[in-house]
Design brief:
Length: 128
């Protein structure tokens, strides 16, 4: 039979081997977990950097769109003022034409020729 002292030594050796093996496996697992976390961290850092650059490009695009919109709005306001003046001028001409007395049939050709000449003259003045 094996003596109790030898049994105690064997048990102590087996416990030491198991304890050391547990530490080795734990260190191996920890090292694998650290590698995985470093890989995840690198991927997330790259994603964060891309997101930051995307945010900057969107902000720049929004600034450009806002500036373009403001410019278009100003140009539209100026165009509306010019169009309002031109429309008023045409409305006054139309009122003038409608307010003229009817022309006798024998003078209609001469009246049309005068109106056409006046129209062409005002068109030339408007173009300049």
């Amino acid at each position: 039979m094996i003596s109790p002292a030898i049994t105690a030594i064997i048990i102590a050796v087996l416990a030491a081997v198991a304890f050391t093996g547990g530490f080795a496996v734990s260190d191996w697992r920890s090292a694998a977990e650290i590698r995985r976390l470093n890989s995840d961290n690198a991927m997330l850092s790259a994603s964060n950097n891309k997101c930051a650059s995307d945010i900057q490009s969107v902000r720049a695009a929004m600034d450009a769109l806002t500036t373009a919109s403001m410019t278009r709005e100003k140009n539209a306001a100026v165009a509306m003022r010019h169009a309002g003046a031109a429309a008023a001028k045409h409305a006054n001409r139309a009122k003038d034409i409608r307010s003229r007395p009817p022309v006798a049939p024998q003078y209609q050709c001469e009246a049309i020729m005068r109106e056409q000449a006046a129209y062409i003259q005002t068109r030339r003045q408007d173009e300049q």
